[in-house]
Design goal:
Number of domains: 2
Bound molecules: zinc ion
Radius of gyration: 20 Å
Shape: globular
CATH class of the largest domain: Alpha Beta
CATH architecture of the largest domain: 2-Layer Sandwich
Helix content: 25-40%
Strand content: 15-25%
Distance between the termini: 49 Å
Strand order of the largest sheet: 3-5-7-6-11-12-10-9-8
């Protein structure tokens, strides 16, 4: 069964893909499906002896270009739709242990190029309205393969979280005539207390109303709706700042900090969103201390109201100190 169903009480579309239960779960390094295919060994997902960055369709997709008909018959109340879209896997390198944080900035810049290329290619498809580039890192985030990789989901409509931001930004624009993200960047640069790191083109900061203690947003200084609006030097600046932020995360507690990274960019079918679409990457690490995780519980899951036990200004200062020690930082 692969289909989408709409929750009539919230208007949100949910994806169903029951075949995903069979997917590979934490294989050993020997059996890693994201490593190159070595001579004399069984083929992996990547039939090459070495590679730089590779993107391929997820073998257990929940969204596909040619979806089957839904199993159930929909009605006006219970709408059902085929699972149009795409699930792609981005394997950052052929090295089983090389994390984004440890890469050369030049290599990170090539990954930024690949993200931009895939955003452009998926945006061209008529069945796609939103491209979400993301990474789940660490077993705490449900990672099933250790080889460093990210994912790209292309959805047939704008999913709930970016839609909420776009609607809020639209109200802000109508009220005051400015982009709320542009206003936030200006305010954070002026205040400075929540800044983790910055360079010519991007700002990394703990949001004023962060959901997680070590939440960091990496936002373009100027109003660029997507990676496609960045110049080459701006893309290189994004890569350089990612290096600083990710190295800071790993230095914070002395271990690889798990996180979810999600990149918010312009919806791809409806260009009316462009004035309120402002490229940013959100990093959501679940740790609240070295040994304690923040669990989403009653208030968060039941009420959608996040409770944060830390001061964003204090966690930003700690992350700023950790990030400042990055070798070769800009
Ligand atoms: Zn591997
Ligand atoms: Zn803006
Ligand atoms: Zn966002």
């Amino acid at each position: 069964m692969t289909e989408r169903r709409r929750d009539p009480t919230t208007g949100e579309w949910r994806m169903f893909a029951s075949h995903r239960q069979d997917r590979t779960f934490l294989p050993t390094e020997e059996q890693c499906p994201l490593c190159p295919t070595r001579p004399g060994r069984p083929p992996t997902e990547i039939p090459l002896p070495a590679f730089d960055v590779v993107v391929f369709e997820n073998r257990f997709p929940s969204l596909v270009a040619k979806p089957p008909d839904p199993d159930v018959v929909g009605s006006e109340l219970y709408q059902v739709a085929p699972s149009y879209g795409a699930n792609e896997v981005v394997v950052y390198s052929d090295d089983h242990h090389l994390e984004l944080a440890d890469m050369e900035v030049g290599k990170l810049a090539r990954i930024v190029e690949v993200w931009a290329d895939r955003y452009a290619a998926l945006a061209d498809r008529s069945d796609v309205d939103y491209v979400l580039i993301f990474e789940n890192r660490g077993e705490a985030m449900g990672v099933t393969l250790h080889h460093p990789h990210g994912q790209i989901y292309a959805y047939p409509e704008v999913p709930a979280r970016p839609l909420l931001e776009l609607a809020t930004a639209t109200a802000h624009l109508e009220q005051g005539g400015t982009c709320v993200f542009c206003d936030v960047v200006a305010r954070e640069r002026a205040d400075g207390v929540r800044v983790v790191a910055q360079n010519r083109s991007f700002l990394a900061f703990v949001p004023f109303a962060a959901r997680y203690p070590y939440e960091v947003h990496v936002t373009a200084h100027r109003h660029a709706p997507s990676l496609l609006d960045l110049s080459d030097p701006e893309r290189a600046d994004l890569a350089a700042l990612l290096k600083v932020v990710l190295s800071g995360f790993d230095r914070m507690f002395g271990f690889r900090l798990p996180y979810v990274m999600a990149m918010h960019q312009a919806p791809t079918a409806d260009h009316r969103w462009l004035p309120v679409s402002h490229l940013h990457l959100e990093f959501l690490p679940p740790h609240r201390t070295a040994t304690k995780l923040k669990y989403l519980a009653g208030s968060e899951l039941g009420g959608g109201a996040y409770l944060n036990d830390t001061r964003p200004e204090a966690t930003a200062a700690a992350l700023r100190a950790a990030a400042a020690a990055t070798p070769g930082k800009v």
